[in-house]
Amino acid sequence: MTVARTVELEGHIIDSGMMARCFGAVMDMGGEFEVEEFEVGRHKHEETYCRMRVLAETEADLRAIVHELNQNGATVADPRDATLEAAPDDQVVPIDFYSTTNHPTYVRVDGEWHGIDDPEMDCAIVVERGGGGSTEGDVRARTKVLNAIEEGDLVVTGETGIRVEPPERPRNGGGSFGFMQGGVSSERPSESLISEIAGEMREVREEDGTVLVVCGPAIVHAGGRDALASLVREGYIDSLSAGNGFAVHDLERDLYGTSLGVDTESLEHPREGHKHHIYTISEIGRAGGIEAAVEAGTIGSGVMYECIENGVPYVLAGSIRDDGPLPDTITDAIEAQNAIREQAHEADLVLMLSTLLHSVAVGNCLPSTTKTVCVDINPATVTQLLDRGSAQAIGMVTDIGTFLPLLAEELIDDR
Amino acid sequence: MTVARTVELEGHIIDSGMMARCFGAVMDMGGEFEVEEFEVGRHKHEETYCRMRVLAETEADLRAIVHELNQNGATVADPRDATLEAAPDDQVVPIDFYSTTNHPTYVRVDGEWHGIDDPEMDCAIVVERGGGGSTEGDVRARTKVLNAIEEGDLVVTGETGIRVEPPERPRNGGGSFGFMQGGVSSERPSESLISEIAGEMREVREEDGTVLVVCGPAIVHAGGRDALASLVREGYIDSLSAGNGFAVHDLERDLYGTSLGVDTESLEHPREGHKHHIYTISEIGRAGGIEAAVEAGTIGSGVMYECIENGVPYVLAGSIRDDGPLPDTITDAIEAQNAIREQAHEADLVLMLSTLLHSVAVGNCLPSTTKTVCVDINPATVTQLLDRGSAQAIGMVTDIGTFLPLLAEELIDDR
Amino acid sequence: MTVARTVELEGHIIDSGMMARCFGAVMDMGGEFEVEEFEVGRHKHEETYCRMRVLAETEADLRAIVHELNQNGATVADPRDATLEAAPDDQVVPIDFYSTTNHPTYVRVDGEWHGIDDPEMDCAIVVERGGGGSTEGDVRARTKVLNAIEEGDLVVTGETGIRVEPPERPRNGGGSFGFMQGGVSSERPSESLISEIAGEMREVREEDGTVLVVCGPAIVHAGGRDALASLVREGYIDSLSAGNGFAVHDLERDLYGTSLGVDTESLEHPREGHKHHIYTISEIGRAGGIEAAVEAGTIGSGVMYECIENGVPYVLAGSIRDDGPLPDTITDAIEAQNAIREQAHEADLVLMLSTLLHSVAVGNCLPSTTKTVCVDINPATVTQLLDRGSAQAIGMVTDIGTFLPLLAEELIDDR
Amino acid sequence: MTVARTVELEGHIIDSGMMARCFGAVMDMGGEFEVEEFEVGRHKHEETYCRMRVLAETEADLRAIVHELNQNGATVADPRDATLEAAPDDQVVPIDFYSTTNHPTYVRVDGEWHGIDDPEMDCAIVVERGGGGSTEGDVRARTKVLNAIEEGDLVVTGETGIRVEPPERPRNGGGSFGFMQGGVSSERPSESLISEIAGEMREVREEDGTVLVVCGPAIVHAGGRDALASLVREGYIDSLSAGNGFAVHDLERDLYGTSLGVDTESLEHPREGHKHHIYTISEIGRAGGIEAAVEAGTIGSGVMYECIENGVPYVLAGSIRDDGPLPDTITDAIEAQNAIREQAHEADLVLMLSTLLHSVAVGNCLPSTTKTVCVDINPATVTQLLDRGSAQAIGMVTDIGTFLPLLAEELIDDR
Description:
Four copies of one chain form a homotetramer. The first copy, chain A, is built from 13 helices and 20 strands. The first copy, chain A, is α/β, with parallel strands linked by helices. Helices cover 33% and strands 23% of the residues of chain A. The first copy, chain A, folds into three domains: 1-77, LOR/SDH bifunctional enzyme, conserved domain (Alpha-Beta Plaits); 79-170, conserved putative lor/sdh protein from methanococcus maripaludis s2 fold, CATH 2.40.420; 183-413, putative lor/sdh protein like domains (Rossmann fold, 3-Layer(aba) Sandwich). Chains in contact: A-B, A-C, A-D, B-C, B-D, C-D. At the A-B interface, helix 2, helix 7, helix 10 and helix 11 of A face helix 2, helix 7, helix 10 and helix 11 of B.
């Protein structure tokens, strides 16, 4: 038995790689294709159109192939509405639910295509119909993570009525933000890259966009704290995401002049080691939290201080290796994830600085259209983060302790 | 002004490095020492005794030096009782609280030395007095992490009345468990090391001890799952600590024959990607948890299955990058840490397998006397874990997907 | 001024990525394209044909674009003969010489296309005409590295008359040898991958092909020496490439039972350290080389021993960090490179085992059509080697000390 | 049978770790010790003296133990002259030759102790007697690597008459150059460390010492070339050691504004790739070498240019992965090693910048007393280099492309 379905692709599908991935997927998965129509884009700005029949041995094989094609931008021809099925229970999805990519996605309901809110990968799509009728305005489709699914939610299943728009290669070059390359720019001069990142930050700021910075403790150890604090003060950072550890190291530096017990000025090791770390948490706890400690004058400098003073919101997520934690730290993983999700959805540019855990958590929630800069001294970390799928990303393997001062110099001192 | 205090060291203090570290600390911290008495151990089994006066410019300097000496095994001569101070509030420690090492530690209360329960680093020591009087039996000293401190707890402050016993170099060689070397045995033949680890596991089992295994998802991806499951089944594992991700991958393999969507037998990628992962969580949630899913026959193989079938307790700790999570996963970081702490305190041998986050969380709670094996393909991970201070540790940079089958072969097939 | 040239592509150019790379290159380099004809391959086995006009502002820009298109498989339409220019001096190339890729390449001379011998990247193409006339048989085109260029050599310049055939996506799947993916299979179960590699080796052997193994010293330290020796003995290895260090460690193990002074059986360190290493070189030198030492009975086991006994040729290349070196080691870098080049050109399958330097040296000389397996515990090494451009490559991040025994078991014990 | 020998240690042997290592070695190697006399240094500046009898089962065991003690600073009591034996052949050492450490070493000949010239590890010691008699001035002892040994050379065998002086812990603190710690200062702020390194360079310059810089190609890729060139121009670098690749990248940047084909200013990739690299070698070859190319005005900037202009000598060592190489490159490994050896012996401070191969080659020739700074973005490289045994070393994991500009700023701009 052979089964078949017809799919269509449209756009800059050759140079963006969609066509290649679709042909490849059919062959890799044991199917066949028959191109029925192919209209190549003859110029840079002309789009290409392809309609092809996809054949497979079994319906199951065909569905698997069509799922893959769908995720790479193909839509089933002769569109029908998406299939909706009620979730059988809280946190339980129907069999064969549609699992999202992080690309812009459209779902067909009552004959109309609706863009989904907050594209995010590995979610279900839940459709809500308003009370007043079947007009587009009354239908809302959005991503929901598994633990947000409630009994009765109308969840999209199968591939019918779904359209995904993978990122297309920009027509005007992409500047330093490479197109889906996932590679690490280790062969590019560090200072030039930093100045491009600065340019991007300036641009986002001018357009009143949101720069989200994701921070690891190495920022403090390596000597990048003052530079980051000045970037917050000068308005280049609009939102901060970190773990308990980053905040404690930053605050310890203010209270004791040390970071994990090392005097960051004299480089001398007062040999009180971890004690300052615990003390810091204890003192902030006594004050009632970071904001209270700033108000009481206990804390007078640093990244967290500037966040409080300049009204920059932050999320501190807890982890099982934390000391304390601080009263500000969200210890429940789901609650923390939800707070991070909100930050991610609002960001126009994300700087991931020397933290794998928090960068992955943020990256999981990002649509593929958000510009991302990932800086780490470990190339494996940079590669892993870029592979998660931003269409426009810069990866930079460098020392955060020299990166941040040079970035701040570029943005602030050179004005 | 010069201030001075007299300290004593006793034991195999030369070859264990304590004497060198104490002399070094005094010099590094700007102090002077005068050795008043020195009786060298003339043979391997004879102990060395040293009494020295330590001098510093200021009382603060002297205290810092004495703190450091104390942590390296020196005790203040002419011992007095430890100073106890009530915690001013919940989760707040008194100024100058004593921050613990992970070595066996004794505290002097009412003229008697009491060993502290559950040595663990970066904790406070809390002393509890029984109702009946001042006999040793009525006094209990134990470590408490900051968030467990309650208002009124009697917390040890300063260094007086504290004795630390850093590990001594074993007199009879240490086998493959090196003495405090913190190095990684990358130059040692892998098969020989595996057989030594097997020997150690056999020994712990014969003595009815507890082997705790800390598991990362790479175990499933790299093909070590069946071997680990058989070790659980055969009784070589007594306790398991992991994250939500490890359990889901293990269960997905049973439900769908895939791990993150890759068919682990045929190596083919069914291209359903992350969908199986989410499904698995959804299905286990529907069943009501892992145990219920095993009982219902939904799950019939794997590491988690064998844990349920063989009554091996496990802790699954949540993190902000989790999908789901499973109903079994503890999402609150503090609650999860407390569960891990209990596992760590009971363990006689800990195998840390391909996970940095969970290994650090377990390692934070371990006394320096617990034997530890750390296996990871990333040498940086192994080094970081060994540096946290087990006195007897094996670090092995290898592929978990070949390590576990060879270990299982050694323990099970070769009987 | 606008200049233009017409180029053609033919083959499986969509799914192999050539079309996407060509469109991308034109846009990235500031040019325009006009597709004049496009005949899509409608089925898996049908080829696609594209003819397009490429436009640029200046002749220099156009040449740069056409160079790039050429390297990705496009040929200038209306073909003319390649331009040949005599090398002005030994080791000096004419201005604008054609620098090769490692793909199969054809050059047009006297109206005929000639495949070049030994495709290798970053070389010049030198054309030799025989005495007898202009028939194809009398023309020979081959790659020459810079230092082999002799005054008067006819070197190809420009892009005219050059055709490159980048690898096409295999129509029948590629098994575990991925198509140009350059990725590392760290998420695939190790044992399954090993058995696929064994299958490939068996196949090459049955077809009387040549397996070249490139060896690093870690093979001996990590315990893979006996397994590799048995593979040589059983005829699975046809050629060996290594450094002086690998050979010395292998021989030291035979002479002293140690590797860099560590007893590889008992794991005890006889504490003679590097002395055995120097002794070994001294003893082989006294005997007059490895073959002489085997004949004299001084050496009786190991990888080098089996090479001698089984007539497996080897190249030992010297480096500036060597001790000694052995009399067999080629200390001149150019001479060593030439010997390695010969090995690489003859190989049908290359196993690169735990050495970056020697693997890069071999990889530099390989055509893109040679199957390659790269095994290292360091993912960065594996990635770097795969990026150099084999079309069919397996990268495996694992421990060579467990990999080789499992491979030998698969090939030898399981017969 | 029990055999015994008496050894002595003297100096700051407790805090420098020598005493601990000697006791440890005796126990690890199955021996026993009896301390016969022990006079502890009571103050920081007082030395400790120890005389102990070492016992073992067999003469062979005893010799192995005494060898180990000797390498850690113990000398056999009741000293006799060193045993000298003639080398049986060129490049062949007598059985039981003494293999050197990299510490200052003394050998007893004709009743007098003679310091050996050029301490270097893994060498033989050759003693030369002058014509005029047995006075100290007429005896010369020096290290010789295996390939420099000539038939008849008087080579020291056994341990008798040898005294090694392992580095002692400095009495006045060591500044940022840690004492034998072999660790990497990842927890120290990058900018502070850079300023300490600058201070050290300034000091060496004031004392007319020699700063040797060892350079990898990443310096050019990452954007550190101009800064390094300015350091050469300003007289902070006295000697340079690198491979062919570094020099070609530096020269290509001058000739074409690219580094491996990437335009380092505009960040655009002219897509000529490796062609510029080969061209550069060809052009320098045509000119007759780097100096000739500078004189002819072909080369007008960069690190190599400044070396020529400022008379800074350089060694370019070849390797099997080189293109070309340049006429200046020494292609024979032994010849290159000898040139590197001379550089190493003359250096007072060595900066190892982003190259493992060349840093190891230099490090192999350094005495343990030479100050060393090792900078690399890969922590494994830094660790490996520090482990080779400089007593005073700084390891810094950072980006060479930001490190060099900050270092140059510190040294040049801030004057």
